[in-house]
Amino acid sequence: MKRFGLLVIAAALGSALTLVTTGYFKKEAPGVRIEHVGTPLSNVALTRNENGEVVPLDFTEVAEKVTDAVVHIRSTSEGNFSKNRTPDPFEFFFGPDAPRQRGPSQSSGSGVIINADGYIVTNNHVVQGADVVDVTLHDNRSFKAEVVGTDPDTDLALVKIKEKNLPFLSFVDSDKSKVGEWVLAVGNPFNLNSTVTAGIISAKGRNINIINSGNPSESGTTAIESFIQTDAAINPGNSGGALVNMNGGLVGINTAIASPTGSYSGYGFAIPSNIVSKIVEDLLTYGTVQRGWLGIQVGSVNSDLVREEELSVNEGAFVSGFGDMDDKSAAKQAGIQRGDVIVKLDNTPIKTSSALIEYIGRKRPGDKVNVVVNRKGKEKVIPVVLKNREGSVGASKREERDAVSALGMELEALDPKVLKRLEISSGVRVKALGNGKVARYTEMREGYIITSIDNKPVNSPKEVNEIIRSKKPGELLIFSGIYEDFTREYSYVIRM
């Protein structure tokens, strides 16, 4: 009891001391207060409605509007191979009899319906090499799709299903989109249909050297890269899906991610809608993409280049040369010189080489562009009429490519320098292989140089087209040729 009494007295003294001390500090430091639990705000100020009232930002309306127009695409390759095998790099490690996958393979991605009659835009890599393309709509209806055309240089493809009165998205001017603007990415990542993610436009005009990175031309890659960068989550399966603004307008086609793991880690990239629109128009009108060429090699101006070349500007596209188009360069013939810095095209400022590539990528052969260059501190306006890759201003005619396209091939003429280096007298390069008999029934690969068909030498895509068109159904077509890295002859046979 005595011990208990002492405890009570000690407690009382402690309480008294606490009250006195608290009163002292309150008196000495009035108004100092730390809140660990507070009352949450009733309104989160993120945006204003049409009445100017502060309201939380809401994505529900635009999400409902766009998901019906985004489809799921499954591409199947049957895996049919001929006995005329092309070089396999695995043979260097495992020998020619190493087991290789021969069965069907399937990949999936997304697509965007762009008109009510069933035309759908997607990425070229989603449908490339496919024997069968299946499209599943948001309401779970499924259709077989026809590949209308592809463009490996922008990684775009146009497919069509036989259905009418479909919901679709309209293109908006991607030039007017701004860094910091809210956007939604819509697609089918990891086969999770109709997934919507939100983010902002993080940057514009990005070149990440991903399109055709393994298939450059003699003068470097012919790819057109000027991506819209966004932090909206994009994952495998989002390829070909929509990047839309807060009004539901199509700003771009989701294409790639920057990730060390292969999954989303902060940034995704979309092809701007202005490029997409031009490619679609070309495929529908001409059957092939009409690409205007300045015929120059360019790089972005940076501090090192300014110092090395003693430039007078800190931004622009530096003309480093004319490459293999030296003798047919539209820019050189118009008066542009090595060392010029292109600072403007028409009324559009050019700050990087990517911006130049994007702008010219929207043009066709025969289009006129006013090129403003800075030459030794002085600006000069030089009108240039763009040419095609072959050095002429005319558009490629649809009928000249029909037979080749039907077999799923895209061809390009070889530079005489390449013929000389390879010690061959004729040849046409297979630039790309799409859906068609060649990909289905042979092992021909991109980069194959066709030297002859049925023992007839060929020197241009037009000659190849004429030979193919002369064939009757059931007749054999024999391709002979080489690969640059494997100079022995390889032959492929298909039946028309």
Topology:
Blueprint: H1 2-28, E1 47-48, E2 54-55, H2 60-67, E3 70-77, H3 91-94, E4 105-113, E5 119-123, H4 124-127, E6 132-136, E7 142-144, E8 146-151, E9 156-160, E10 182-187, E11 195-206, E12 227-230, E13 242-244, E14 250-258, E15 267-272, H5 273-285, E16 297-300, H6 303-309, E17 317-321, H7 330-334, E18 341-345, E19 348-349, H8 353-361, E20 368-375, E21 378-385, H9 402-406, E22 409-413, H10 416-422, E23 428-433, H11 437-441, E24 449-453, E25 456-457, H12 461-470, E26 476-483, E27 486-495
Antiparallel strand pairs: 1-2, 3-4, 3-6, 4-5, 5-9, 6-7, 8-9, 10-11, 10-13, 11-12, 12-15, 13-14, 14-15, 16-17, 17-18, 18-19, 18-20, 20-21, 22-23, 23-24, 24-25, 24-26, 26-27
Structural class from helices and strands? alpha+beta
**How many extended strands?**
27
Number of helices: 12
Just give the CATH class of the largest domain. Mainly Beta
Q: Which stretches of 5+ consecutive residues score pLDDT under 50?
A: 6-13, 15-45, 80-102, 213-220
CATH architecture of the largest domain: Beta Barrel
Main beta-sheet annotation: 7 strands, antiparallel
Description:
Helices cover 21% and strands 31% of the residues. It is of the alpha+beta class. The protein has 3 domains: 58-288, Thrombin, subunit H; 297-385, Pdz3 Domain, CATH 2.30.42; 398-495, PDZ domain (Pdz3 Domain). The strands form 5 sheets. Strands 7-6-3-4-5-9-8 form a 7-stranded antiparallel β-sheet. Strands 10-11-12-15-14-13 form a 6-stranded antiparallel β-barrel. Strands 16, 17, 18, 19, 20 and 21 form a 6-stranded antiparallel β-sheet that branches. A hairpin with a 5-residue loop joins strand 1 (47-48) and strand 2 (54-55). The longest helix has 27 residues, at 2-28. It is globular.
